[in-house]
Each structure stands twice: as C-alpha cells, then as structure tokens.
C-alpha cells in the first residue's frame, strides 16, 4: 500500500470516528459536515474529497463498523476451529468477540442499534445488507453444528443467529449504560450460561 492510500485510510478513519461520536451525541440531522471536519481535525473540503455527502459518509460508516464486527466474529469462529473446538465453543468465542467489539466501539453500537429501528433512511438497504453479513457468520456455525449432530435439528438457524447477535448487542448496551461496574468477563459469563442453556439450573 503506497503512502497516499495509507494517508487516505487514516483520514477516513478519523472522519468515521468523528462522525459516529457526533451523530451518537446529537443525531444525524443535527450534525453538520463542518462539525465532523472540525472534530476530525481536517478541512471541510477533505470530507467532500473522501465522501460525496454526509449521507454517503454515514452509509460508509455503517459498512465500515459492521464490517469490523463481522470480521471479529469470523476470527473468533476460525480460531476455535483451528484449535479443534466445538461449534458451541465457537459461538461462545463469538459472544466474547462481540462484547469486545462493543466495548471498543460503544458509540457506533448505540448508533447501529438505533438505526435498525428507523425505516425512512436512505441507507436502510445498506444497513440490512451489512447486518445480514454479521448474522450470516453465526448462521454458518449453527448450520455446521446441526450438520455434525452437535446441535438439534429443530433449531431455526436464521432466527437463532439473529437472536444471538441481538442478545449480545442489547446486553452489551445495557452493560455500557447501566452496569459499568461489571467487567467484560462478568457479562460474557452471564451470556455464556444462556448459550449453554443452564439458566434453568438443569445441567
């Protein structure tokens, strides 16, 4: 990668971080390109050099953020497979990876969850596509677990995958907002019990 493309990547990363923080704080409509540029420490023209509009910046921000989440989930699944772990262990590792991502990018996660519920946005179709990419990683592990007999054939794979991703997102946001005294290990341990079906007390 040459120095100009590396510089551009660094600039785009600064713009993503500035935009996500501002939009999480005050909403998309209230955030101006001037404010994004100022927060990123770049000229306003730099924003338009990298993105045609604020809407395009936000759409790319969603792609970028969910892409990072998807990559972290995939890495957790791959690492578990490489060491010969089970599919349930892979799902457990993915829960941990998801919590780690949210701990690192809380403003993005808050924004992403809020946008999932809005239907009048220009980027709604993009959001649905990138959401499905993240969920598909979990679906693959579930499907492999069903195929090898580790998981029940009765599992509704798409719904279970969405539920697992949703569980991690909502639990982590609750942790970030209301239970900051807990460690990531505490939260992972609680979700791990749910995954293993041990909430009822039966083993």
Automatic annotation (TrEMBL):
The superkingdom of the source organism is Bacteria
**The UniProt record lists the keyword DNA-binding:** yes
Q: Does the keyword Hydrolase apply?
A: no
Ranges where the HTH tetR-type domain occurs? 9-69
Q: Which residues bind DNA?
A: 32-51
What are the entry keywords?
A: DNA-binding, Transcription, Transcription regulation
InterPro entries according to UniProt = Homeodomain-like_sf, HTH-type_TetR-like_transc_reg, HTH_TetR, KstR2_TetR_C, Tet_transcr_reg_TetR-rel_C_sf
**What PANTHER family does the database record attribute to this sequence?**
HTH-TYPE TRANSCRIPTIONAL REGULATOR RUTR (PTHR30055), MYCOFACTOCIN BIOSYNTHESIS TRANSCRIPTIONAL REGULATOR MFTR-RELATED (PTHR30055:SF238)
Protein name listed in UniProt: TetR/AcrR family transcriptional regulator
Give the species this sequence originates from.
Streptomyces flavidovirens
């Amino acid at each position: 990668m040459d120095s100009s493309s590396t510089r551009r990547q660094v600039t785009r990363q600064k713009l993503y971080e500035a935009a996500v923080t501002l939009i999480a704080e005050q909403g998309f409509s209230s955030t101006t390109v001037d404010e994004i540029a100022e927060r990123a420490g770049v000229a306003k023209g730099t924003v338009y050099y990298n993105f045609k509009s604020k809407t395009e910046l936000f759409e790319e921000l969603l792609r970028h953020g969910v892409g990072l989440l998807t990559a972290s989930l995939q890495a957790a699944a791959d690492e578990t497979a490489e060491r010969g772990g089970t599919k349930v262990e892979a799902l457990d590792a993915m829960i941990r990876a998801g919590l780690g991502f949210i701990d690192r990018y809380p403003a993005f996660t808050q924004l992403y969850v809020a946008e999932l519920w809005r239907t009048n946005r220009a980027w709604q179709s993009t959001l649905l596509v990138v959401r499905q990419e993240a969920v598909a990683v979990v679906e693959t592990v579930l499907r492999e677990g069903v195929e090898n007999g580790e998981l029940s054939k009765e599992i509704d794979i798409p719904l279970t995958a969405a539920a697992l991703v949703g569980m991690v997102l909502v639990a982590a946001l609750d942790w970030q907002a209301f239970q900051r005294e807990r460690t990531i290990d505490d939260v992972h341990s609680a979700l791990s019990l749910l995954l293993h079906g041990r909430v009822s007390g039966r083993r």
